[in-house]
Structures are given as C-alpha cells and as structure tokens.
Design goal:
The protein has about 375 residues and is of the alpha/beta class. It has helices at about 5-10, 45-65, 85-95, 110-120, 135-140, 150-165, 180-195, 215-220, 235-245, 265, 290-305, 310-330, 335-340, and strands at about 30-35, 75-80, 100-105, 125-130, 145, 170-175, 200-205, 230, 255, 275-280, 365-375, 375-385. It is built from 13 helices and twelve strands.
C-alpha cells in the first residue's frame, strides 16, 4: 500500500546525499519521545489513538528503509497519567534521553505547557499533535510547533456554522474554567459569534472534575430565548454534559470543539440522548480517497479497529512531519531539524497539508463539522472559516 511516506523511501536509497549527525552510524536509531496521557482520565480516549497513529507512521517509515541512510525511528512513549506533575516529570525524563532528536505528543494545551518548555530549554524541537492554542509557540519558544489547527480557527468555524447554517442567533456558553483549551475556545467562539451579530445570553462556568451540572442546566432552561448551548469541554465532561442536558428535556443543539471527538460523547449519554450535537474536529474523517483512506486502511490493518477519532490521524501527522523535517535537514541535529520544520511549506498530512508561513509555527488547515444523531457520529461538512 502506498502511503504519504513513500517519498521517504526513495530518499533513503540515496544515502550518500544525506548528512548524518556527528558520530552517528547507519545503525543508530533516531530517537523520538511521545508524551501522552494514556492510563487515566478522559484524555486517554484521544491520546491513546494519537500514540497509535504516531507508532504507525514510524513503522511505515522504518519498513520503507528508515531515514538518513537506513536509520530506524525509535519511539519512546511516556505516560503522563492525566497529571501535570507527571507531564513535567515525563518531559524531564525525555530530554535526558541520550541522542533524543525530537518530542511529539499531548492533545491538550495545559499539558503541552507543562512539558514543552523543558524541550525548549534544551533546544529540542517539540511538535504537539493535538494541543490547539494558537499562543503555544509564542508562550514556549521557537522549538514549539503545532501539527493541528488552532482554537481560533475551529471556534470561528463553529460560530459561523451555528449563525449562518443552523440559524442560531442567541446562545448560552458553558466553559470548563480549569482548562486553557476550553477557556480559549469559548473566547474565540464568542468573539466571532458576536461579530456576526449573535447574542450571548449567559456565560456559565464549571470545572473538569464536576459531575453534577444541574445548576447550569437550570440556568440554561431558564433562558427561554436560547437557541443553542456552546459547551466548551474536554473529553472528561463532554458526554456527561450531553447526558444531563438531554435528561432535563432540553432539545436545543449542543455545540462543542474537538474535545468532543471521543467515543465518550456517544457512550456516556447513550443512543437515546446523544442527539443534535455538533462539534468541530480535524479534517480527514468522512473522506474515502487519498491519504485519508490510506491511513484508515493501514490503521485498521495494524490495530484491528478503524481510527477511533481524528487524534489518531494527528499523531500520524506529527510523526510524519518530524520525519519529513529530518529528511530535509539531512541531519538529526536539533537546530537543523527545527530550521527544517520552520521551513515546511507543503507537507501532505492526512488532516490537511501543513505549511508554516510568514514565521508562524501554527498551520492553517480546514475544519470538519461533525453531527451526532442517536449516538452515531457523521461528517456534516468541511469548512475554512471566513473570520
């Protein structure tokens, strides 16, 4: 099966044209560390597939002959256990690995902020597969890159879809006040929604550990003019929120971001309640041709299940992006790989071509709008926001 990494195979055949890092031998592995929340919390439902995607990309590259004259990619996975202290400890352990070339991982901004600065301090490039804050590169430094779109892009896409397509002009916003991701998402959504002419009737907040949303549900129900609720949530609470809103007899659309791209959105509320839910995620789902179909087929073959969500594809893309930079740099030198990443203009990723233009380290990519009906998730459309 042809993959998006087939061009890497041809490159490795011309070993003499590539420059290895000082003292590196052809047999030396190219060491990449992957930091993910794998064993605790709702983030495991998106981080586990993301790691699997990264491992699949590395396997394909290795099967095609590796990089830089036959060197194999070696991924070390570190479980950060849905704990910020574990994330910092994991990053400290990662950067101490002799010969480490780059880091990838994390699907949440708060966790990326706990890990990535340690890579920055050592001059080691880090590519987040799914942490979507557009401010991350500026907050961390020039070693930080996103393989995913940013929250302003997905929030603007949902605001435009809600206002223009769903006809929602009055909305209530719920925000998990414990996550950088959810706070940023709500801000960007509100900015674009009100710019379009929409009205926010109420801003309500909760915390990630909350399990009882009855007070928020009551206030939502009391807003008779509300046409929808934008519930900015991570995987931990998305399914619970949907369940409790529907149990209260509220049938209005529930809108969210890519934190909803988890089976918990369907499994927690169940078939009878998981209805009229719209969320944004990373474009590739629903496509049956090209790189998306090749990835889906390979993932199914490797793991015995189709990709659980778009984060599987993002892990694949993050690993592929790093490998492409190493190939173009002709080296595993940190500065050379960082420079090659920054110079990326057209990497053919599964979730949309990646280009870092005009000094940005955040790619501009399309956004998929998903619809949940009787616990079934389907693609509604793919958009690039006008805002």
């Amino acid at each position: 099966m042809k993959s998006i990494f087939s061009r890497l195979a041809a490159a490795t055949a011309v070993a003499g044209l590539l420059t290895m890092a000082p003292h590196a031998k052809a047999a030396d592995p190219i060491k990449i560390v992957a930091l993910y929340n794998l064993s605790a919390g709702g983030l495991a439902s998106i981080d586990g597939p993301s790691l699997n995607g990264a491992k699949l990309a590395a396997k394909q590259i290795n099967d095609a002959g590796g990089l830089l004259g036959g060197r194999m990619i070696e991924i070390t996975a570190i479980d950060t256990k849905n704990d910020l202290k574990e994330a910092a400890t994991g990053a400290k352990r990662a950067v101490s690995i002799e010969g480490l070339v780059a880091g990838i991982g994390h699907s949440d901004t708060t966790f990326a902020l706990a890990s990535a600065p340690l890579f920055q301090a050592q001059g080691i490039p880090f590519v987040t597969s799914g942490a979507t804050s557009p401010d991350l590169p500026d907050m961390v430094g020039n070693e930080m890159f996103l393989a995913c779109f940013a929250d302003d892009v997905q929030a603007h896409a949902m605001a435009e879809y809600a206002y223009n397509t769903l006809g929602v002009h009055n909305i209530v916003i719920w925000t998990d006040n414990a996550m950088d991701y959810t706070k940023g998402l709500s801000k960007y959504f509100q900015d674009r929604f009100t710019q379009l002419g929409g009205k926010v009737l109420l801003n309500d907040i909760y915390m990630t550990e909350d399990k009882d949303f009855s007070a928020l549900v009551s206030r939502l129900k009391a807003n008779k003019d509300a046409q929808a609720v934008f519930a900015s949530s991570g995987p931990d609470t998305a399914g619970i929120i949907i369940k409790q809103i529907r149990e209260a007899g509220i049938t209005m659309p529930i809108l969210g971001g890519d934190g909803y791209d988890t089976d918990l959105v369907s499994s927690v509320p169940g078939e009878a309640l998981a209805n009229e839910v719209y969320f944004t995620t990373h474009a590739y789902v629903g496509l049956d041709t090209g790189a998306a179909n090749q990835f889906r087929t390979a993932y199914q073959k490797e793991y015995g299940v189709p990709p659980e969500n778009a984060f599987a594809a993002l892990g694949y893309d993050a690993m592929g992006l790093v490998a492409d930079a190493i190939k173009r740099a002709g080296s595993t030198d940190h500065a050379a790989v960082t420079a090659a990443l920054a110079a990326t203009t057209a990497f053919p990723a599964v979730t949309g071509n990646i280009a870092f233009l005009n000094g940005s380290r955040v790619p501009s990519k399309p956004v998929a709008i998903m619809y949940v009906d009787h616990a079934k998730v389907n693609l509604k459309t793919t958009v690039t926001p006008q805002g």
